Amino acid sequence: LDCKRGDVGSTAQAYAKACYDDLKADAVTLSPYLGYDAIQPFVTGQYAGKGAFILCATSNPSADEMQSDALRDRVASLSSNGGAWGVKTAVASRPLGLVVGATRPAAVSAARTQNGDAWLLTPGVGAQGADASTVVRAALSSSSRDVRLVVPVSRAIMNADDPSAAAQKLCQEIRDAISNAPPPPSLTDTLADASRRLSDTMTSTFPRTAELLTGGALKPHQAKFVGCVLRSGALKFGSFQLKSGRQSPYFFNAGLVCDGNDAAEFFDAYAAAIQNSGLEFDVVFGPAYKGIPLCAGVSAALAARGVSSSFAYNRKEAKDHGEGGTLVGAAVKGRRVLLVDDVISAGTAVREATGILAKAGAILVGVCVAVDRQEVTGGSAPPAPGSERVSAVEGVRRELGVPVVPILTLTDLLAYLEAKGGSDEHAANVRKYRETYGAC
User: Which helix or strand (DSSP H or E) is residue 338 part of?
Assistant: First the structure.
């Protein structure tokens, strides 16, 4: 029964009685806005074992006005076997499921990552524009072929010329998507991924410790990258006013990599970082405007390394003729997309791009940037003592639930300056800046 109930105490109990005893429902949808008080009457006591699907990410266009990715992740986590709601419910049939709109495949994938136990109810296939194969791939994208997915379709079948044929076609799409899904990762793959994630976390969150562990040595592709951006003027040292109001001792502008030879090294550095990360993807996406040559160049550099990929980008304004729309290049619907950008300062551009990709039905699997500044977001004032010092990159990583792979970090840059003769002043300025604004 899709009733989306959510109320307090005795009212919730009355709703549960009406749904289960009067209407004879076996499962309901519930709003979590009031917390577990609104859920408990539907899944405990005499109704233990009944099914409940908790609203996690709805399929309506304005859902983002209220539902942040962090909120969706919290609902999914609380509902899991080890989560607070799951523990309180604690019955053999595991009644807590999640409602995750099929129009948001990235949210489906994130919910499955947060909660590998729940059945996912995924409205939005058919009339709302989502397709069954995309949502199945998103639900299977974590680690298992145990899809635990309910795909409700009404109008697309009910209004079809031949409803029976439409239903059979939908079932076949789901079966094909499951059978064509990549196998779950092996233990070796899982351990390698864990190692990469640990390395990313150490580098982003504990840069000083990471520097000690790595010995400050640049990898070959990083050394070439530094040479390229210094030679082209894309990386400069001095005193630069940032949009945040901070005075930075260095500045990076990828737009100044405009020579063919420099660009070849620049794009290859992206390709090397992506290849080393182990990320698997189908499409390289670049947000307008800098991302347009970036996605094409990175895709070409990956091809030179034997990695096949397509590329796509967006327009700032929708085109009303020709192919129309805002997306250009390879189709992204139902495909694994890697987003490439130059730097993440506040994360605004990346969030806008992921919103575009989500609406297009893409499955975001990662982000790759040239430079991770490893500094906290905000204005010119230093972070308050005792406050959590989270970098923009780490914030994006947490919010989107995907890895963010940099070619170079501030830790790497400082190590380069300290190892290079004649750069003591620049190194001292960068070190002082990091002590003030660093995420560590």
Answer: strand 336-343
Q: Of residues 93 and 89, which shows the higher confidence score?
A: 89
How many helices and strands (H and E) does the chain possess? Answer: 17, 13
**Alpha helix (H) ranges present in 215-332?**
220-232, 260-277, 291-304
Q: Say which amino acid occupies 210.
A: A
Chain center to CA of 415:
30
- Residue 14 tokens, joined: 């009355």
- Which sign does the torsion angle of CA 210, 213, 218, 219 carry? negative
Cα–Cα dist 405/365, whole Å: 11
| C-beta separation of 130 from 59 below 8 A | yes
Instruction: Find out whether the peptide bond into 33 is cis, omega within 30 degrees of 0.
Output: no
pTM: 0.54
State how far Cα 47 lies from the chain centre: 36
- In this structure, is the dihedral angle defined by the CA atoms of residues 18, 20, 25 and 27, taken in order, positive or negative? positive
* Alpha helices (H) along 26-68: 40-43
DSSP-based three-state secondary structure for 115: coil
Residue 1, CA distances (Å) to 35, 92, 153 in order: 20, 22, 14
Is position 321 annotated as part of the catalytic site? yes
pLDDT average, residue stretch 343-366: 88
- Catalytic pick among 24, 243, 316, 321: 321
Sheet of strand 96-100: strand arrangement = 27-30, 51-57, 96-100, 120-121, 149-150
Query: What are the structure tokens assigned to 16, written together?
Result: 């549960």
Which long-range contacts link 385-391 to residues 24+ away (Cβ below 8 Å)? 389/438, 389/439, 389/440, 390/439, 391/204, 391/205, 391/439
Residue 160 DSSP label: S
pLDDT in tens, 94-113: 568 999 998 888 888 888 88
Tell me how far apart the alpha carbons of residues 27 and 90 are, in angstroms, rounded to a whole number: 17
pLDDT in tens, 175-202: 887 777 665 555 445 444 554 454 554 4
Rounded CA gap, 211 and 209, in Å? 5
Tokens of 230: 């210094």
Report how far apart, in Å, the C-alpha atoms of 218 and of each of 14, 208, 440 are.
65, 15, 20
Task: Taking the CA atoms of 302, 306, 309 and 310 in sequence, report the sign of the dihedral they define.
Answer: positive
Half-sphere exposure of 367 (CA within 13 A, CB side): 31
Q: Any idea what DSSP says for residue 21?
A: I
The CA–CA distances, whole Å, from 313 to 96, 255, 285, 405 equal: 39, 17, 5, 19
Catalytic: which of 88, 221, 319, 432?
Answer: 319
Tokens 């029964």 identify what position? 1
